[in-house]
Design a protein that fits this description.
This protein has seven helices and nine strands. The protein is an alpha/beta fold and 240 residues long. The protein has a single domain, classed as 3-Layer(aba) Sandwich (Rossmann fold). β7, α6 and β8 form a beta-alpha-beta unit. α1 crosses α7, α3 packs parallel to α4 and α4 runs parallel beside α5. The longest helix is centred in the middle third of the chain and has 29 residues.
């Protein structure tokens, strides 16, 4: 049986990279989208396409998805993963960091949805996995705007899930806690970074992005009439 196209934003590292590799391993053609083209190309995944795309650029994102669909067929799975975490003391943070997070973490999510949603509706099938965070379920110190963007993902996902359900399109939210990814590279506030690293060390480190990719594939691989609406995953010692 021919496997269907998986589209992954933020595919150059972390959970995006792990998910691209997981779906490729299962025989799916994969479209990888991120700003680091060489990194994605270095994965050497079969039946894959890598495109340098900023998710805030709606036209470029739509163009890349169309190009992949022309080659591999319609998108059956979108992992709406691209995001950035500029964690900092809100009273001292440069507002340009707010703008960056809001633009990527909210507008970027909507742009990717826009690129695939109508096609999935018309075909009456598909799966959308939106990347949120445990910070979309509760608030943390120095996470103010980041939490806001992830609460946005939850709200949008609930609304779109209801909207797409009559078309048999599934909307899944994945809400990780501390995972071994490059997320800390986005933290420019030294005190916030130290506190995050200290907490991570206290609980014995984060968990592998591969486990999150396995969860995403498990949810996707359920029969189309079975929807795992949300998955929240943390290290066992991360008590909140």
């Amino acid at each position: 049986m021919t496997k269907k196209l998986a589209v992954i934003t933020g595919a150059s590292s972390g959970i995006g990279e792990a998910t691209a590799k997981r779906f490729s391993k299962e025989g799916h053609p994969v479209l990888m989208l991120a700003r680091r083209l060489e990194k994605m190309e270095s994965f050497n995944l079969p039946n894959s396409m890598s495109r340098k795309v900023d998710v805030t650029d709606r036209d470029s994102l739509v163009k890349a998805v169309k190009e992949a669909e022309d080659k591999f067929g319609p998108t059956d799975m979108l992992f709406n993963n691209a995001g950035i975490a500029r964690l900092a003391d809100i009273g001292n943070q440069n507002p340009s960091e707010w703008d960056e997070m809001i633009n990527i973490n909210t507008n970027g999510v909507m742009n990717a949805l826009y690129a695939v949603m109508d096609g999935m509706k018309s075909r009456k099938g598909g799966t959308i996995v939106n990347m949120s965070s445990i910070a979309g379920r509760k608030v943390y110190p120095d996470h103010t705007v980041y939490c806001g963007t992830k609460y946005f993902v939850h709200a949008i996902s609930e609304s779109i899930r209801s909207y797409l359900a009559p078309y048999d399109v599934r909307v899944v939210v994945i809400s990780p806690g501390i995972i071994e990814t490059e997320v800390l590279s986005g933290v420019l506030d030294k005190n916030t970074l130290k506190n995050y690293q200290d907490n991570k060390k206290r609980i014995g480190g984060g968990i592998s992005a591969d486990y999150v990719a396995d969860m995403i594939y498990f949810a996707y691989n359920m029969p189309q009439n079975v929807l795992i609406q949300e998955m929240c995953v943390t290290p066992t010692r991360q008590e909140f």
